[in-house]
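Lecture 7 notes. Example A: sequence first, then its structure tokens.
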Amino acid sequence: MPISPTRHDWARLLAELITQLDTGRIYNRDLDELSVALTAVGVSMTRRLYIRSLTSLRPR
């Protein structure tokens, strides 16, 4: 069973994905599915950053 990536792994894994996309090592047939997944990541990041910005405005 594969080990789930930790928070320390994600930047490296995404950099590797960028490299594989740029060098053509991802099949064209996989690009639509990958695009859907990456769009979901972008939506989640935007939501998380918005929530973080709200919590940083609260007085402590």
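Example B, a different protein, same format:
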Amino acid sequence: MDPAIIDNLEFYKMSGSGNDFILIDNRSGIIGNDIAPALAQAVCRRGVSVGADGLILVENSTRADFKWDFLNSDGSRAEMCGNGGRCAARFAILKGLAGSKLTFETLAGLIQAEVNGGLVTLTLPPPGAARLDFPVSTAEGMLTVSFINTGVPHAIILVSDINAAKVKETGREIRFHQDFAPAGTNVNFVSVLDPHHIRVRTYERGVEDETLACGTGSTASALITGLKGLVKSPVAVTTTGGEILTVHFTIDGSTVTDLKLTGSARVDYEGKFTRETVFAP
């Protein structure tokens, strides 16, 4: 990676309900696909660099207002990220790339967004077919798991005491479990608080840890509990960081339509990289 590319490169640090991201206007193509994974690994390091759950490169699109290249902190690419999507939509507004209603291109398809100040609503593509209540063997015995793909894969485990859930230990085991190979899966631990309110803790693939929030995970958790008849739209989702995401949907049998995710997208600060941001040990 050429240090000259990085020196004085502008970025935004943003957060969506506790998930934090580094966003770069890459319409010039200065960050190539070949160096993006290494850049993500370098700048997302906490303590020794900017630190974030992921890196978002905003690029030109022939199909939408913009497209993104989304990379997790380990350098892997993800098809979709709900919290990152809201940040990218607001970033586009701040950079003058689009109006308050916009569309952007992801590996999961075209995503529509509506930005109202720091509050952003995403209209998401219909999810993949859900699998409800199947057994998964773990070190602590059999667990009952459900699964749905909301742009990225999510396993859902219902728990009575979410504070006692072993999110890192069990989450990591399920994330790499042979039943979800080769792609792996995100893992959500969910408690139903009332018919319109759930609480979720998520182990995120690519971050390889519990995060303060996961937009696609919150969406997946609301949909699985909705398909099981435990909640009805709209569903408020309390995240680990304490912020609340709202998921709207329509369920007809096993078919989900009109899927929307609403939550905050905050600008933490603007900055410029130095060579030491990336190349310091």
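Note on Example B: The first strand starts at residue 10 and ends at 16. Residues 82-94 form the longest helix (13 residues).
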